[in-house]
Amino acid sequence: MAKKVHKPIGNHYIVEASGCDPDIIGSVSKVQQILVKAAEIAGATVWAESFKKFSPKGVSGVVVISESHISTHTWPEYGYGALDIYTCGDDVDPEKAINYAVEAFGASTSHITEITRGIDDNDRIYYHSIITWEEDFGEIREQKTNKRKSRKP
Amino acid sequence: MAKKVHKPIGNHYIVEASGCDPDIIGSVSKVQQILVKAAEIAGATVWAESFKKFSPKGVSGVVVISESHISTHTWPEYGYGALDIYTCGDDVDPEKAINYAVEAFGASTSHITEITRGIDDNDRIYYHSIITWEEDFGEIREQKTNKRKSRKP
Lengths: 153, 153
Known about the structure:
homodimer; alpha+beta; eight-stranded antiparallel sheet; 43% strand; globular
């Protein structure tokens, strides 16, 4: 990682994706391809990958990137995929990764929290701030621009 | 993973640990040992580990566990360690992992958000709830019981 990006500020997205395609999120190879491509689209360098099918249907996986990680855990029987991505530095755009992965999972809606980490008031006591919003893709994704963003106190 | 724990509910802890010992959080081997032991203390099965030193001083690592992951990214020059752990099922106690890791990092304070993931209202539209609190260990950890917990709306 270049010295210029070694600030402690990072962004962590926590995403619950609903209405996902069970055939996609139930396939280890498809989920792995999607997460690796998501990391690449975000501009991250992939170091390592670990994916596994778990009983009875789900997939669990982590892509380790130079700027931290992107992970998922899926429940095809509920059409539900839990995703998170944590990145540091200005060279990576984690929102691109999330947008790509959620769309590739075939999700109809997603509930997203963005956590800005490593903030301090010049006292080296670090904390994070939180924003949560919903995205509704609609059955034919016509509502994709229907994004609501609300800051939680 | 046993079928009984295949519910979509999971717990994700996002932790900013401040005042950490630079000699500990700057050492790849020490950070790796701490995270692996944290996973074991929580009752998780370790599948894979990926740790790396990054320029100029930090350590970045992920332990992939059967119930998802525990990761860290450290900045020894600021005494700051970012940690997160995501687990599903009733067989793992992620708070034990966090408590162990934060103490092993030598942190004086931590800012913690617990995200309960995979909640729905029987409509398969999943969301999460959020609680944030601070822990102040004090210089000699006398204030360790001084835990404040506040529910964020």
